[in-house]
Amino acid sequence: MKRILFAVLALGLTLTAQAKDIFVNTPKTTLMLTANDGQTPRIHYYGSRITPAQGHEIIDAMSLNYDAYPAFGRESYDETALSVTHADGNMTTELAITGTRTEGDLTIISMKDKKYDFYVDLYYRANDKSDVIETWTVLRNGEKKAVRLEQYASGVMTFRQEGAWLTHFHGTWAAEGQMTEEPLTQGLKTIVSHDGVRAGMNDRAEVMISLDGKPQENSGRVVGAALCWTGNYKLRLETRGKYRHTLVAGIDDLHTTYTLKPGESFQTPELAMTYSTEGKGGVSRAFHRWGREGKLHNGKGLREILLNSWEGVYMNVNQEVCEQMMDGIRELGGELFVVDDGWFGRKYRRTNDSQGLGDWQTDLEKLPGGVPALLKAAEDRGLKFGIWIEPEMTNSKSELYEKHPDWVVAHPTRELAKGRGGTQLVLDMSNPKVQDFVVGIVDDLVKENPHLHYIKWDCNMSMNNFGSSYLSGDRQSHLIVDFHRGLRSALERIRKAHPDLVIQLCASGGGRVNWGFMPYFDEFWCSDNTDAQQRLFIQWGTSHFFPTMAMAQHVSASPNHQTGRVIPLKFRFDVAMTGRLGMEMKPSDLNDRECEYAKKAVAFYKEIRPIVQLGDQYRLLSPYEGNGFCSEMFVSEDKSEAVFFCYKFENYADLHTPRWHMAGLDPDATYRLTEFEPSERARYFDGKTFSGRFLMETGLDAYLSRQFSSRVIRLKRE
Ligand code: DGJ
């Protein structure tokens, strides 16, 4: 068979009517498919970058040959990506390739049903600045009547490897991003979100598959996959005969049948994937880079050190208390003050969580000068200013709900299931009027306060009710998809109008952590759990797919408000400093000694901020290993600077401290070490020099004696 090899670097593929090998290349990886006219696209290889000539070896080895987008209808014994009920009721689909083309960095494989005018375009985007590829489909109804999409996945990937392991993330309120690692065994593993609103609240839509047995941080072949979708999703991992693993990822197919009228099309969300030979850490670094190179809003800008009012005063905000907190954070060296929940509501004042959402006018009893006076007070102190909103929500006790009861997600015939505070309801984002309202909240705030710098966008409820007064009876099953399309459209409008506004994504903590949101947000709140010991686990899990520059990590009071645990201030800072540092307490609650310490910590963070926020992260010793220790480090892109963190968080007297092995350094360079305020008495490593090779291969014996001892060591190339 004549085989035309084509498509080397993402750009510049050509079109051919013959048998085609397609190479979707990133700097270090290749996805190889064949796309022969009249057949289905086949996945042959996903791994280290290969040349087209090596493609022959892959075909000759017959290593892998699976449908890249299996449709239900014929020989569908395995999980399918697509299931369609055609206009005449036929539930089967048989796709055949009609052509391939490239547009810039995109490779597009076009298919059509063999008998019906139903079209599928399968997209692959190859990034040339990170090793992440993205895949999605566009489905088009060319039939004379409506068709129903029952299942419409974004993409598929197949691996053939015995002994593969799965790493996935899950949790609940105050315990987000928990990591589980397990061998992939025969059967179907499903990772799903049915929350309706907060896609990352329980299971998360990102997985790693380790092809060399138990996952390692910095060695072994690992594939990472993340579905970029803000709503309900489903990742299916089917293992057959121990060795064949197929991942099918897309919008959840439960209660989401989507009707396409003649001529209408539907674009699925992206499935982003990477492959690394440097273990899970390699996958993480590729996703982090992908974020910095464009997928994360303002991926190259440094994030400010802020004080958020929530754990300091909860809803008891007023001008005086906010000014005290501003004074506090200014004295410590912070840069931004954010007023959290409690600042709004007139008829229904936001004095507790049972009322006021939707009424975004300042509570003049608490804040007589309104938001402008708060902003001015911040600016007078040289601080930037930010504010909390929860735009997609209302309470049944609100002027908004009184005016627009039909704006909430619910079926009008049913009694409402209410959420937080016994009254909270979700606004129906599928309704364009609601979208306008949500966009208007941000527009109005900015109009009134042109210097507004930051918004915390919260979301504290699941879709407790189902139904839309906006969608017609025969389109109720569009609700979950259209809610999120409406949300996305509102976010796009907001970003277009306010590109420089810093916006934090929050959903009862980390309930919305998903790449589908990140083009619109600068950062996210990792968890309402600010206990530094538990944050080690939450942040470790979350950093597997998300860059630490986007992870909001706040130092809070001790005893901690969620767990009651008492943790020294140094340990709290050392844990928070591995992401976007902030504080969430009344600074006036710190004693003089703590205040002096906090000033030093903030000043030190400013020095290491570019390394932590823009450098490469190397997770080293996992807290999940169960030995009570944890370490990680950050290395600047040119490897001239690094910062190393290690912690002891269990209380075993005389427990041997592990030998700390570093990673990511230049082996041939010499690094000089300085310690930041060690909790152990001796500044043991201060001023000493070591080669990168020694630090990585032999490592340091940095002793940590007590529970909540930690060390932060800065490295500079000589
Ligand atoms: C949930 C968030 O996660 C908290 O940080 C805080 O903003 C509250 N909502 C406010 O109601």
List keywords for this structure.
Beta-galactosidase, Chain A, domain 5; 31% strand; binds (2R,3S,4R,5S)-2-(hydroxymethyl)piperidine-3,4,5-triol; single chain; disordered N terminus; 8-stranded parallel β-barrel; 718 residues; 10-stranded antiparallel sheet; alpha+beta; Immunoglobulin-like; globular; 12 helices
Largest sheet: 10 strands, antiparallel
Distance between the termini: 58 Å
Q: Percent of residues in beta strands?
A: 25-35%
| Average of pLDDT | 95
Structure classification: alpha+beta
Going by CATH, the architecture of the domain at 2-295 would be Distorted Sandwich
| Low-confidence runs of at least 5 consecutive residues | 1-18
Question: Number of DSSP strands?
Answer: 37
Instruction: Evaluate the radius of gyration.
Output: 26 Å
Helix content: 10-25%
C-alpha geometry: globular
The distinct bound ligands, ions and cofactors come out as: (2R,3S,4R,5S)-2-(hydroxymethyl)piperidine-3,4,5-triol
- Here the CATH topology of the domain at 2-295 equals Beta-galactosidase, Chain A, domain 5
Task: Outline the fold blueprint.
Layout: E1 3-6, E2 19-25, E3 29-34, E4 42-48, H1 52-60, E5 66-67, E6 82-85, E7 95-103, E8 106-113, E9 118-126, E10 132-141, E11 147-160, E12 165-170, E13 178-183, E14 187-192, E15 206-210, E16 222-228, E17 233-240, E18 244-251, E19 258-260, E20 265-267, E21 270-276, H2 279-295, E22 306-308, H3 310-313, H4 319-332, E23 336-339, H5 370-380, E24 384-389, E25 393-395, H6 399-403, E26 424-426, H7 432-448, E27 454-457, H8 479-497, E28 502-505, E29 523-525, H9 532-542, E30 551-556, H10 569-576, E31 580-584, H11 592-614, E32 616-621, E33 629-635, E34 641-648, E35 670-675, E36 689-691, H12 692-697, E37 709-717
Parallel strand pairs: 1-2, 22-23, 22-31, 23-24, 24-27, 27-28, 28-29, 29-30, 30-31
Antiparallel strand pairs: 2-3, 3-4, 4-5, 6-11, 7-8, 8-9, 9-10, 10-20, 10-21, 11-18, 11-19, 12-13, 12-15, 14-17, 15-16, 16-21, 17-18, 25-26, 32-33, 33-34, 34-37, 35-36, 35-37
Bound molecules: (2R,3S,4R,5S)-2-(hydroxymethyl)piperidine-3,4,5-triol.
